């Protein structure tokens, strides 16, 4: 393993960001329990002491990597729906994003964190903080829908918690593997949200995908 990166001095903020990005990617790909100072150092091609200069313990690194991964992913999901014309449209698109297979990596990361926080007090605090942040963010979207007359709930934050509870169940399926049929659970995510928010059945469901080959053969 080359240590040439050690000789290239980077500004502290840049180096810390590099370590954090690498740790987050490793955590998502390999799990939080596999994350060590040495593992991150090996991935970057630097000495472990350089990583420990910024994160003195493995717990600090694990917490920071989890925080970075889930906040980055959550911000991207909500940013992607920000330009939708109504709260109903924003929620419908958001639900599609939150249950997509491309999110399996972060779903597994959450599953890791829920399991590991029993033995890591600092991680438990961070997990609860991030769950609260997601609940508040979705609650604000729902409150906008109530104001617009599209959703009917007296407690947007509580509704957000119940919607996320179903979505979080997908983390277990992600752990089982790609051969599991997600269709029934995906359907539950939409029907649960519609029922929770007083939305007519089918209004939050994405339109069916039409296979152009099959469509042509049906003519």
Explained architecture:
The protein is mainly α. The protein has one domain: Tetracycline Repressor, domain 2 (Orthogonal Bundle). 71% of the residues lie in helices and 0% in strands. The chain contains 12 helices and no strands. The chain has helices spanning 4-7, 12-30, 37-44, 48-54, 58-81, 87-98, 104-116, 121-147, 156-168, 170-176, 183-197, 212-217. The protein is elongated, with a radius of gyration of 21 Å. Mean pLDDT is 86; it is low at 1-7 and 208-219.
Compile the SSE list and pairings.
Layout: H1 4-7, H2 12-30, H3 37-44, H4 48-54, H5 58-81, H6 87-98, H7 104-116, H8 121-147, H9 156-168, H10 170-176, H11 183-197, H12 212-217
Helix pairs in contact: 2-3, 2-5, 3-4, 5-6, 5-7, 5-8, 6-8, 7-10, 8-9, 9-11
CATH domain topology: Tetracycline Repressor, domain 2
| Residues in helix, % | over 70%
By CATH, the architecture is named Orthogonal Bundle
Task: Give the overall form.
Answer: elongated
- What CATH first level would be assigned? Mainly Alpha
| Number of β-strand runs | 0
Mean pLDDT figure: 86
Helical segment count: 12
Instruction: Write down the secondary-structure element order.
Output: HHHHHHHHHHHH
How many domains make up the coordinates? 1
Question: Spans of 5+ residues with little confidence (pLDDT < 50)?
Answer: 1-7, 208-219
